[in-house]
Amino acid sequence: MTCQVMEPVRVGGYRGVMTRTASAVGDHLRDWRQRRRMSQLDLALEAEISTRHLSFVETGRAQPSRDMLLRLADQLEIPLRERNVILVAAGFAPVFPQRSLDDPGLAAARRAVDLILTGHEPFPAMAVDRQWNLVSANRMVGPLLQGIDADLLTPPLNVIRLSLHPRGLARRTANLHEWRAHILERLRREVELTADAGLAALLTEVRAYPIPGGRAPRKPSDEFAGVAIPFQLNTEDGGVLSFLSATTVFGTPVDVTLSELTLETFFPADAATARALRAMAAGLDGSG
Question: What pLDDT is recorded for position 219?
Fold first, then answer.
């Protein structure tokens, strides 16, 4: 139950009431609109409402319906988790369920994830949650983590922390400065888009990590003309594995957990890496 405190308000020649709930909802919407760098006119046009009505919603002078909130949230591309927050603030029940991937209701989604990860072998692939904690991975990921400090591998295993920590993959990343800049910029954009406090804290943490051995930056690779940044990992036998990564998300999720799930798939960036990964997979099969 939502408790609403009614306060008098005058709108033009109309004297009515404003609820603190409506004001809180308006604050949420205004914050997201400004985060998306949209004017009231821009958003009103996209949502097909009047600018005046949107202004009243943002200032708490009008109490929006649930459908109106969902329409505005859709135009603002607000994450499903935060849409629930806005709905609750307005006195409505959450619309989007949040379930564990182990929930029977998400069994089909879990099968799809497992099929993608397994089908991507002999190349590495993983699924991560909204804060880059590892949810699942195919068997090709494990061999790449050899030599990582054990404390970084304890659950929840955070992929960003593992990648940039000086006792993680950072000390084995051949193009660390280039890859680090790419990861930090991606994380910064995600913080901006989601307003996730956990991601913001993670970004602050990893930005402060020292560069292992004080390595100087090397000239960025121009192999892909700036279209893609390769991830180049030194292996124990002295060879360098070079990867290109691709991101996959569920297109029309109706569940908070699914909307926040990302599949990270890695492809060999050269023939030598492809051969090395196939040999590694053969070894895991016991046929190498």
Answer: 63
